[in-house]
Amino acid sequence: AANLMVEIHSKRVDVLRSFFALRASYTTDQKRDMWSSILDESSFTCRLPVTPYQSFPSSEVQLSNSQRTIVGVDAMMADVASNAVFLDSIVDRTRYPTSKIKFQY
Predict the structure, then answer these.
(1) Strand pairing partners for 47?
(2) 3-state class of 47 per DSSP?
(3) What phi and psi values does residue 14 have, to the nearest 5 degrees?
(4) What is the pTM of this model?
(5) What is 5-45 written as a DSSP string?
(6) Which of 34, 90, 91, 98 is the most exposed place for a label (fewest CB within 10 A)?
(7) Which stretches of the chain drop beneath a pLDDT of 50?
(8) Distance of alpha carbon 103 from the chain centroid
(9) Are 32 and 73 in contact (CB under 8 A)?
(10) Which backbone phi and psi does 94 adopt, to 5 degrees?
(11) Alpha carbon of 83 to those of 4, 14, 100: distances in Å?
């Protein structure tokens, strides 16, 4: 029983690491199959605070608690793309025309 608990914990940690690695490494050719391999299409949700620097569908927002709920793989991929646009906008293009910001969790 203890081995099973360790195995389950290890698998959960691996999935979270994969999730955060995908979230931090946006590319224009995001692989939906990679996202689908770690997120359950039928039940995945992600709650985040409403942020002024990112675009997102108004349907994700719950005004009562200033949160938004991302539902599904496509919505998660759209959120990652929006976050990449925000990060790209921070760079001063007159001084660093080809620079990129990288982040990790």
Answers:
(1) 69
(2) strand
(3) -60, -45
(4) 0.83
(5) HHHHHHHHHHHHHHHHHHHHS--TT--HHHHHHHS-TTT-E
(6) 98
(7) none
(8) 12
(9) yes
(10) -70, -30
(11) 37, 23, 13
